[in-house]
Amino acid sequence: MHITVIGAGAWGSTLAALAAENDHQITLWSRRLGTPLLEAVSQADVILCAISMQGVREISAQLAGLASDVIILSATKGLDLATATVDTLPLLPSQLWQAAFPDNPIVVLSGPNLATEIQQGLPAATVAASDNLAAAKTMQSIFSSHRFRVYANPDRIGVELCGALKNVIAIAVGTCDGLNLGTNAKSALITRGLAEMTKLGSLWQIEFSTFYGLAGLGDLMATCSSAFSRNYQVGYALGQGQTIEQILHNLQGTAEGINTTAVLLQLANQQQIELPIAQQVGQLLNHTTTPQLAMQTLMERQVGIEHSPD
Ligand SMILES: NC(=O)C1=CN([C@@H]2O[C@H](COP(=O)(O)OP(=O)(O)OC[C@H]3O[C@@H](n4cnc5c(N)ncnc54)[C@H](OP(=O)(O)O)[C@@H]3O)[C@@H](O)[C@H]2O)C=CC1
Ligand SMILES: O=C(CO)COP(=O)(O)O
């Protein structure tokens, strides 16, 4: 098949290499390369978008006239700030694609997939999620190999939401590690982070099982435990006392959790819900707390019942 990969960053290049290993034809497009976007997609059977969240709306609007059988595969992990209004939930990247191309099959690729490890040839598994199961299975066959195992899943929105939310928790966990607070604290934060993710998921009416799958718990574990994760790196450096400006100056690549935190704070405000971890991460990023105080605030919240919805 002919696959046009939009975005030649860490993830786009890695996915392009996986498909090329399976003998698919690849066109890699990046805004830096100068090829017109419409020319790059003219032969595509599949358009794989692996750019940062901030570019998805603009790029999807630039594409036009796609045949309705072209499969759009979204690999971005984020939420759209512009669409978080009082009455609507923020849109996910695949929903921006669906709005631009209502007749095309849309698939989301998400899972514990640190690009650096996959580039090193290490094994990984992921999820191709779509309400169009045939399209998800096509993605399975394009990307699966002895070192990359792709599961199909019908819960596109749930899988995609997990990928966006875990980045915020990874910033918090990185901060905890940067402060050297130990394994017990880290485990508690990951577990309560998963609870916060599922609480948010109820707004989208996401099945619990998705949160305990590869795109949920799996990706949360990967992102919260690897120094390759940019979101973890941001948190770790905050915990070590750096400012967000210093961190972003040195960071290689995109840490989507920063933007996603801003979306979640807006959502918490609109929906009048408490998101203890995201709110502390937001304050850290906005310079209104310190790492030590953020962790202390989480520890000193009123004690409650473990599986209560609050
Ligand atoms: N790296 C990883 O391990 C994984 C990343 N992801 C997700 O994939 C997405 C991309 O991440 P990653 O590749 O690592 O990030 P990088 O920072 O390495 O690359 C980002 C890419 O997005 C492009 N881009 C950013 N803004 C725009 C825009 N407005 N218009 C067009 N292109 C734009 C960049 O283009 P340019 O180079 O011109 O700036 C670049 O190609 C993120 O949502 C991330 O969460 C998902 C799974 C794994
Ligand atoms: O999504 C990822 C791993 O699955 C990559 O995480 P980072 O964006 O934090 O590097």
From TrEMBL:
Catalytic class of the enzyme: oxidoreductase
Gene Ontology BP terms: carbohydrate metabolic process; glycerol-3-phosphate biosynthetic process; glycerol-3-phosphate catabolic process; glycerophospholipid metabolic process; phospholipid biosynthetic process
Residues the record lists as binding substrate: K77, R230, N231
UniProt xrefs under InterPro entries: 6-PGluconate_DH-like_C_sf (IPR008927), 6PGD_dom2 (IPR013328), G3P_DH_NAD-dep (IPR006168), G3P_DH_NAD-dep_C (IPR006109), G3P_DH_NAD-dep_N (IPR011128), NAD(P)-bd_dom_sf (IPR036291)
SUPFAM superfamilies listed in its UniProt record: 6-phosphogluconate dehydrogenase C-terminal domain-like, NAD(P)-binding Rossmann-fold domains
Residues involved in NADPH binding: W11, R31, R32, K77, A115, R230, E256
Annotated keywords: Cytoplasm, Lipid biosynthesis, Lipid metabolism, NAD, NADP, Nucleotide-binding, Oxidoreductase, Phospholipid biosynthesis, Phospholipid metabolism
Reaction(s) this enzyme catalyzes, per UniProt: sn-glycerol 3-phosphate + NAD(+) = dihydroxyacetone phosphate + NADH + H(+); sn-glycerol 3-phosphate + NADP(+) = dihydroxyacetone phosphate + NADPH + H(+)
Pathway: Membrane lipid metabolism; glycerophospholipid metabolism
Subcellular localization, as worded in the UniProt entry: Cytoplasm
Record-level Gene Ontology MF annotations: glycerol-3-phosphate dehydrogenase [NAD(P)+] activity; NAD binding
GO cellular component, one term: cytosol
PANTHER family: GLYCEROL-3-PHOSPHATE DEHYDROGENASE, GLYCEROL-3-PHOSPHATE DEHYDROGENASE [NAD(+)] 2, CHLOROPLASTIC
Assigned protein family: Belongs to the NAD-dependent glycerol-3-phosphate dehydrogenase family.
Entry protein name: Glycerol-3-phosphate dehydrogenase [NAD(P)+]
Organism field: Romeriopsis navalis LEGE 11480
Gene: gpsA
